[in-house]
Amino acid sequence: MSKMPNRVIIVVIALVALVAALVFFSSNRTESQFESGTPEWVVQQYLVAMFEGDTDSAISHISESSPCNVTHLDRAWVDRNASIDLVEVSTTDSTARVEVDVEFGNADLFSTPYVESHIYRLERVDSEWLITGVPWPVYDCGEITK
Fold first, then answer.
1. Rounded to the nearest 10 degrees, how much is the dihedral formed by the CA atoms of 62, 66, 69, 73?
2. What is the per-residue pLDDT across 116-128, written as a single tens digit (0 to 9) for each?
3. CB neighbour burial string for 61-77, b if at least 16 within 10 angstroms, e if fewer
4. What is the pLDDT of residue 16?
5. From CA 81, how far away is CA 26, in angstroms rounded?
């Protein structure tokens, strides 16, 4: 009796196990821990709240100078399978800029994910960093620009 079919089965099982491991590790990303109170931490807390549908918490990270209110955040659509990576943070004494990449479509091992870049601008109010403007995943807060 030939040992060839046994080897084929072993190779197929090994390949299936390898693909399963790749899918498992690519879908189980960890959440970065930033120092509390930093601009990147504020953006992270805002995004975590938005992804969890907790817009009441999310609005607490937005400045009163923003045209957005909690109703605007309630209408925002969030792809819960998206992943977010911090790209760059720059700060002055009173302002900050946090750039993130949002990756969509990473569930399929064989597809190319779509990546969007988003920039959050923050201002220091008292001793707290708050997001200004219209922060993603919100695209419109009823603001009219010319």
1. -70
2. 999 999 999 999 9
3. bbbeebebeeebbeebe
4. 56
5. 12
Q: Which residue ranges in the chain fall short of pLDDT 50? A: 18-28
CATH class, domain 34-131, is alpha beta
Closest CA to 97 of 106, 112, 87: 87
Where are the alpha helices (H) located in the chain, listed in sequence order? 4-27, 39-51, 55-58, 70-75
Look at residue 81 in the predicted model and tell me its pLDDT: 85
For residue 142 the two structure tokens come to 């009823």
Helix (H, G, I), strand (E, B) or coil at 59: helix
Helix (H) / strand (E) containing 110: none
Please give the distance of CA 107 from its chain centroid, rounded to a whole number.
Answer: 15
Dist CA 58 CA 39 (whole Å): 14
pTM score, two decimals? 0.74
| Measured distance CA(117)–CA(96) in Å, rounded | 16
